[in-house]
Amino acid sequence: MSSSTPLLAVDELSVVFGGHGSDEVRAVDGVSFTLEEGRVTGLVGESGCGKSVTSLALMGLLPDRGVRVGGSAVMQVPGGTADLLKLSQRRMRDLRGSQMAMIFQDPLSSLNPVVPIGRQVTEILRRHRGMRGSAAAKEAAELLDRVGIPDPERRLREYPHQLSGGMRQRALIAMAVACRPRVMIADEPTTALDVTIQAQILELLKNLVTEEGTALLMITHDLGVVAGLCDDINVLYAGRAVEKAPRAPLFAQPTHPYTVGLLGSIPRLDAPRGEPLTPIRGSINDNIAWTRGCAFAPRCDHYTMECLQGPPDLVAVGAAAGVEGGGGSTGAAAEHVHRCVNPVRGADTADRSAPESPAAVGEDEEAQG
Amino acid sequence: MPTTPSSQNRSESREGTKAPEPADSRDGHTPLLGRRAAKVDRLAELMGRREEGGHGAGVWRTAFDRMRRSPMAITGAVIVAVFVVVALFSPVIAPYEPVAQTWGDEVFPNRSVFVGPRAENWLGLDNLGRDQFSRMVIGARQTLLVGVVATLVGFGVGALLGGAAGAAAVLGGRWGRQVDNLVMRVIDMMLALPTLLLAVTVAALVGPSLTTVMIAVGVAQVPIFARLLRGAMLSQGSRDYVLAARALGVRKHRIALVHILPNSLGPVIVQSTLTLATAIIDAAALSYLGLGNPDPAFPEWGTMLADAQRFLSSAPQLAVYPALAIIVTALGFTLLGEAMREALDPKLRK
């Protein structure tokens, strides 16, 4: 595979729930992004903006009733390319686990409580690599060792409730990487973990990506995680991408008011004591349909009447007329796009560029380079 | 608290068998550090185990701890234990042959002459001069046999139907939901019939015998087991670990058998304890109605009750003994089952 063709190209993915009688809900509405080998792509947004639905749609795990999936997701698979959204169930089942794997949010509930870890790991090896008996057990121990679980032989015999939270997530990652998948989707893998474990897990994921050349789709609401891990970032709102950019320009010069709001609502350690956080007002339910205008407009501090004149398009930053603040980003302009008619620009965002989430400590210098 | 030391004891006894292994394997490199690490790990595990209580093996362990403190469970367990011991060793315990009419010349039912409890016959004689106590003890064995076999029949068939329906509904897609629908409508029809009526119908169709009673009572329990297992499987099917298994490409039949089924068996196991009680009562009822084993060599509590009915005015004790035995045994199983259900149900925990 040449490096120019992406490993997985998602184009205009849309997921619509409902149908008979009830109102339709467009959970994902024309999201496009690409995954490339050895790169981490982030999907960022608050709860309910369609992140998890996107990942489930790609894995073919959405329920078959009352769901319509549109668009395409072309993936490089052995022997050509395949559109994940149109493959048969059987074919998808063979791809899941071997070519693509997923890591879930809650490591405890994602492990079967009554089956020892060892059996859960060897099950995957047996399913996709045809390994059995002692060979599978040996490989399983190696996998656990690889993801940093000490004393793997003993852990293989233990049940999920005997493991700590971090170790459970490591075990899940071991299961996900068991067959060296080319695409890995991590759906908020660190949300249920405490901050120190979070940093370890992110480090582990990063190593797996660089060593194996896996493409990782990182789904998170934690901008600290994004800053530490992701190469390309898609900010979603109400089912559509509102801003997408490589990491450095996004944090240095966020242009969409939603991105600016997300960055602004992160608590900072160096903020004066007692200073209130600046949240984005309202909730994700206070939106208008994308067909009528910008869905974020009701919550936006920057909106003008222009925002309500029909759906805004994804445009390159700096393409809009009268750009003053975005002058420095001409090189990155093609990669940095946003869906806004009245973007934020200028110095008022500069001081918010680096989030201070503990998970990102030590990674910030990379963000500049 | 009585539980804390006991749970510690048990963990320690487990440690005795398990601890040397990791210590040995680490002694090679860093003995001191390794041993300390093992100790810390062990401590963390013990703490985790005590705090947990919500997952996997911990559920059964905490349920057991809870049951040991519940007077209901203890009473039930004692009754059940006595009953099972008596039933298993009945030929040894029974002092006389249950069919031998040894004292036939002492009892005259026509003249209302009966023999009550006395030194050689603890519960007196029945209408044919047979030792009532021996007949009761031998009857316990029949009752246990009927109860267990009927429950196994109900469990087996019900779990098969319910499991198939549940698995089809969770994993089978559109096709599976139709299979599930079909099976469950049949089950609903069975459930709509009163248990005893269903059992009587089966018994009447096949003819009176012990096997008939077992099958009839078992069939009557099938819909309960089927619905229960299907419901449990449906609720487990929407759990994260099933999604995770699907995300890893595990085959459907393996997800159903390895992941969903073991997690769904808890309520079914509890139900089988309760079913034993119902089965015993139902079996007695069927025998009482004359659909049980007609062979006098195998006395059964229900049959004994039916026989005693004719002499109810002159010798009520003949009816009282088997009736009491049925009630107490059924009570024992019910108490045990209910206590188990309560102990396993997080909503009922205090």
From TrEMBL, chain A:
Record's bilayer topology term: Peripheral membrane protein
Q: Tell me where it resides.
A: Cell membrane
Query: What GO CC annotations are associated with the protein?
Result: plasma membrane
The record's annotation in Pfam families points to:
ABC_tran (PF00005), oligo_HPY (PF08352)
This protein's UniProt keywords: ATP-binding, Cell membrane, Membrane, Nucleotide-binding, Transport
PANTHER family reported in the protein's UniProt record? DIPEPTIDE TRANSPORT ATP-BINDING PROTEIN DPPD, OLIGOPEPTIDE TRANSPORT ATP-BINDING PROTEIN APPD
Q: Which family is this protein grouped under?
A: Belongs to the ABC transporter superfamily.
Q: What is this protein called?
A: Dipeptide/oligopeptide/nickel ABC transporter ATP-binding protein
From TrEMBL, chain B:
Pfam families with a match to the protein in the record: BPD_transp_1, OppC_N
Q: Which SUPFAM superfamilies does its entry note? A: MetI-like
Q: What is its main location?
A: membrane
Keyword Cell membrane in annotation: yes
Regions of compositional bias (Polar residues) in chain numbering: 1-10
Cellular compartments annotated? Cell membrane
Query: Keywords of this protein's UniProt record, alphabetized?
Result: Cell membrane, Membrane, Transmembrane, Transmembrane helix, Transport
> This protein's superkingdom?
Bacteria
ABC transmembrane type-1 domain location is 140-337
Which stretches does the entry tag as region Disordered? 1-34
Biased composition range(s): Basic and acidic residues: 11-29
Question: What InterPro entries does the record point to?
Answer: BP-dependent_transpt_permease, MetI-like, MetI-like_sf, OppC_N
Q: What are the GO BP annotations of this UniProt entry?
A: transmembrane transport
PANTHER family (alphabetical): OLIGOPEPTIDE TRANSPORT SYSTEM PERMEASE PROTEIN APPC, PEPTIDE ABC TRANSPORTER PERMEASE PROTEIN
Family per similarity comment = Belongs to the binding-protein-dependent transport system permease family.
Tell me the protein's name.
ABC transporter permease
- Organism whose genome encodes this protein: Nocardiopsis sinuspersici
